[in-house]
Amino acid sequence: MVIHDFAETFGGAERVTAELLAAFPGSELHVLAGRQQVADQMGAGDRWHPLLPSRSRLLRHYRLGAPVYPLLARAWRLPEADLVVSSSYGYAHGAHAPNRPPHLCYCHSPLRHVWSDAHDYSTGPLAQPGLRQAFGTYQRAMRALDRRAASNVDRFLTQSPYTGDQLRRVFGVEAALVPPPVDVDRFHPEPTGAHDDAFLFAGRLVEPYKRPGLVVEAFRRLPHLRVRIAGDGPARAELERIAPPNVTFLGQLGTAQVADEMRRAAAVLFPSVDDYGLIPVEAAASGRPVIAFDGGGARHTVIDGRTGVFFPRQDVDSLTAAIAAFDPDAWDPAAIRAHAEQWHPEGFRQALRAHADELLVASAHPGLSA
């Protein structure tokens, strides 16, 4: 049985969950809420089970349910299983099957808005004194629930030393490092090596996490350059309202469409502090360089000067300077593509099955792999 937080949009965590399902064929997928289209993209359209009803209004505003999700996960009535594999960036690690089988968690991040991103919320959207005090109370309660949920897990896996350090500090656990998979066979460099001079941002339109607003403001200062923004999310309407004419919004794209956008981009922009971030690897598989903020998981996926460049501060001035100085023709697509080959999905699947078998043997359950 595979458990994931949400199947609301097909982002990096959902791509990883799709590989979890591929590693354990036939596993049922359980999510707190989601869309049929996303379940189909994850390869589980005929075997997925949302806890909450798949209503469009609920899915548009599902983040508002954050205070109750830890309690829902703990009370979730799941079927019995030999093994629980959770894919969690928030709540899935708190769920368990009634017969208490071993629980293997691939943790993308501890709950971001109360841990790694808490300062951004308390000094940004919730900076007013009354709101800040209320958020502090909420944060303490959610951190206690998150630590309690972590005690439900027998073994943590994670994608990078950056996230591994977070798990050590937050939960007091040592997580085994298993770099996330990228279906590099779906991404290919443009055969001619040409590009169309437009930059690309791809990802959830969420502030302050993904920082698409930095991209919009940088290109306001660079009216002679163009950027395309692929993705959807709660910040989209406001970003479209304030965006200058050289910023184009593409909406939510399928994998094939994202691959097409990447292979012809001047460069792919990655301004966020992600726990890992699959976008730089997908860009590399497409033979295109990345302009990334020098922090988080990008330090493990981007080679400065070979597969992309870093900008030092997570602000508009720093990103603007990096884009203005960037030469999109000074890169070797074949060398960039070669860097991405190490993230092929089969190695990820083998590592998952090995960890699962170790847990099952230790708990006297039969192994899963031959």
From TrEMBL:
- Does this UniProt record's set of keywords contain Transferase? yes
Q: What is this protein called?
A: Glycosyl transferase group 1
Decide whether keyword DNA damage is in the record. no
- Recite the UniProt keywords alphabetically: Glycosyltransferase, Transferase
Instruction: List, alphabetically, the InterPro entries matched.
Output: Glyco_trans_4-like_N
Q: Which GO terms describe its molecular function?
A: glycosyltransferase activity
Q: Where is the Glycosyltransferase subfamily 4-like N-terminal domain?
A: 10-186
Pfam families of this UniProt entry? Answer: Glyco_trans_1_4 (PF13692), Glyco_transf_4 (PF13439)
